[in-house]
Structure formats: structure tokens, C-alpha cells
Predict the structure.
Amino acid sequence: MSDELRELYQDIILDHGRHPRNFHPLEHATHLARGHNPLCGDRVTVYLAVEGDRIADVSFEGRGCAISTAAASLMTEVLKGKSIEDAKKLFAQYHARVTGGTAEELPEPLQEDSERLEPLTGVKAYPARVKCATLPWHAFEAALKSGLAGDTVKTE
Amino acid sequence: MAGAPLRKHEERPGRFDARRLRHEFPIFETNPGLVFLDSGASAQKPRSVIDGLAEFYRNDYANVHRGVYALSGRSTDLFEEAREKTRAFLNAPDGREIVFVRGATEAINLVAQSWGPAHLEAGDEIVISDLEHHSNIVPWQMLRDRLGLKLLVAPTDETGELDLARFEALLSPRTRLVAVTHVSNVTGALLPIERIVKLAHAVGAKVLIDGCQAVPRMPVDVRALGCDFYLFSGHKAYGPTGTGVLWGRYELLAAMPPWQTGGGMITSVEYAKTEFQDPPHRFEAGTPDIAGAVGLGIALDFIEGLGREAIFQHEEALTGYAVDRLSPIPGVRLVAGGQRRLSVLSFNVDGVHPHDVGTVLDRHNVAVRVGHHCAQPLMEKLDLAGTVRASLGVYNDESDIDRLAEAVEACREMFR
């Protein structure tokens, strides 16, 4: 296996791609949104249970490639228990990193989460795959806005 | 073809030599090691086409059908010569039946928007197959909604073969048009066009054939096929992008109203009234893609130079080799392509999303298409999010298929 490919498909990605965490609908969801990439057919639904300004629980379901599945799975892990404000900060920084933009330094408590997401930043070398890594996050952002109306956000 | 013994097609003197042919395609010089298996999406260009375009612009370029000066005359002659080459290529009876368009998509839209409303009324039926590209679905869907037509879909069976009995059952005196592909861009299935035409004509329907995948790789004779419209994209036939051809029977084209209007397609314009040209110029409003048509003519010369029967044999044998090479790989599932499959092979690797396969293959320098291939309804029917598609060109040989198979094995290894 080429080292270059291993940069993209690190063990943690393959593991989360095969065995996604928090992969189920959320009965007590307060927010949900669907993400759809018409180009590859990937679909993801992100569920949130928001209590006050905190994401008490988060889950997802759908079908997609290893990258988008792992991105969604890792996203649910880091978002659980976060304040909405911190979650948005994490997304902004993650987005910058996977698109090769300038990433702002995050406050201390979020740095560990940021490192959890590090394996996904390999996609920046694969422009065609960046959307795979951001799709679940866009769905998360849409869920925050749409509540239970369940908007669909499209990326391609 | 599955189940047949592994074929290595032997090197005979004078036989098709894809490896040598590769030198005719500069892309393989500038991209050494490239295994290009996406000709079904668009073919690479031979040197003769690339250089021919530049030569034309350098030596003979001016607008056509306009100027009285010699240069414009020369440009017009070359443009019309390309039309004549295309006529001969399709064995069409009359050069006036060759309409230059931007591509197959535009050709189908032209027929849908010009022929459609002039000949169809509410309750009339159009029959397509379930192998169609979006470009042979959506224009008819729009027309259906506009005119109150019915759009019926003839299914393929589990072997990937068009179910002729069910196709026939869909036909009725209300059937006005049958629009089907010659070769599927997803499964490679070669459709029995002559049978389809006979059945359709028996109920008085016209037949339109999407020849995008057929034209670059097999003999196409519109008189023998007996269809009413035949169309293809130039860029899939080694020609420039932005070129395409609509062939239609002259009496049909002559009875069709103009589509896009403007310069070049009129005989006289007054504020009260405009007189239109006869086909093909009636359908070629504005300055056409002159160099593109000339380049397409050169591309057709290139294909003819190799011999379409020889290309057909080469690609059919190579398709068989690819089937034999890929099907034994554990976890690889080929999409059924009927009894005769030509140059297009779709497959999935168990447990690995097509996009991940595509990325791994790309890193092995193997270029394939992944996704729905502009055939979402077919993906839906096959219950697939997408497939990996390898499609052949004249420059491919067994070494390319071997590299594909090795990359697929590596992919399986990685996602094990």
C-alpha cells in the first residue's frame, strides 16, 4: 500500500468507516438535517438532542464512502457534550484544515477534539474528496438551523 | 461472456496494436504510466485531431457560409467536407441529414423540442429503456409534462439484456417514439436495435438511437439499422469537445420547425416574417463550432483508418478479458451486461464505496469513473449507490486491464 494512500486512509478512518460510532437515529432528537452529495449519492442524516446551549446527544445514519462515514462518526464523538458555540468553532477550524485554508488556533479545551479530527485532514490532498469529509458537518450546521423541520443540505 | 475461458488475444501480424497506437495520443507521453479507462465518459485525442485543429486555425479559418472571399470559401469547404465525412461514416443517404450540434445532449433536446410538439399530443406515448443516460430521459420527461404524454420504460432482465417481450408489450398505436441507447454507458450491453426498430415501426412509432457509446467502437450504418434519428457526441469518438451529430431522415427534418433561431438558418428576414433554410442549416443557428466539426471529421478519419470492425473485435475481446480478469477477484461484483457487452464494465467491490475504490485506483494511476454515470434510475433499480466503471478506448490493451485488476486487489487488501 502506498504511503500516500495511507495518509488518507489511516487506520482510524478505516476503523470508523467500517464500524461507525453513534450510528442510529436519535429518538429524543430536537434537531435533524440531511446531507446529500448528488455527485456520489452519499446521504447522511444527523440527529441532535440539544439541551439549552449544549449538545447532549448526537448521532447519524446514512450511506456513504469510508471518508464521509468516518467523518460523521468522528464528528459525533467530538460533538457530544459540547456547547453549540464550541461546536461551531470546531467546525470552522476543521473546515479550514480539510480545505487547506488558514486554521485558527482553538482554545485549550478544544485542542484535544481538534486532534481527534486530524486523520481526516488527509483529504486536503484529494480535492475530489473534500466534500466527503465536510458533508456530515454541513448537515450538522443545517440541523442547528432547521430544528426538527429536517432541512436537506446539498454539496457537490 | 462470463464463464468463457480466459482469453489472451494473440498477437497476429497486422492485428490491432493498441500499444503502438498509444503513441498517437500525446496524453500518454505527458502522463507516463497513465492507465486510462474512462473513454466512455470522453475519449483522449489523437495527434491528428489536436494538430488538425491548430492547422485549421492557422491556415484556413474564417466564418462559414458568409464571406465572398477565398478564405471563407476554404473554411466552408472544410466544414462541409466534415459533414460529408460524417454522412459516409453513418452511411446516411444524404448529407443534408447531418446536423452539427454541441453533443448528444443537444441532439436529443433538438428532437424533443422541435419534432416533439409538432408531432405529439396528449396521451401519446414515448418508450425508453431502463439503460438510458439522463440525457435520454430528462428531455422526454419535460416533453411529457408539457404535452401530457406518457413515458414508458422498457426493463432489462436480470442478465442485463433488454427484455424484448416486455418492450413489445409496451408498444401500442399510441407509441409515437422509441428512444433507446445503442450501447449502454453503464453496463456495456449492446441493444438489438434492428429488432427494436422493426417492432416500433410495426406500430408506426419513430425510433431515435443514442449512439454515443457505439460510434467510437463499432460499425454503424443508419440504413441497415432502419432507425429514424441517430445521434452521437464527437468527444467520445476521439473528436473535440463541443461537437456532436444528429442524423435524421430528410423528410422528418424537413417537416420539423426551427429550434434555435438567428443568423445562418434563414433565407430572408423581414420584421413581419422570416423564411427559414432547409435542413441541415435550419437547425444550425449562429456561427457553428467550425473547427470542432473539422476536428470531428479528422477523428472519424482516424477511426476509419483503424477500421471499425477491427476496433470492435479488439474492444470486444478486451472486454471479455476484463470480465475474465475481474470476476474471479473475491468480493468483486460485475453489473450484468447482457449477452453482448462492449467496452463498458461496471462493478462494485464488496464493502468498499465506489468513491473509495476510485481514489485508490487513481493513486495506482488507473483512471476510472465512479458514481451513478448519469443513470440514477438504473442505479436505483440495481439498488446501488453507484458503481466503478471501466470503459475502453482503442489505446487500451491487456496490460491496462491487468493494472486495473491489480489495483482492485490492492483496494480489497486495504479495506479488508
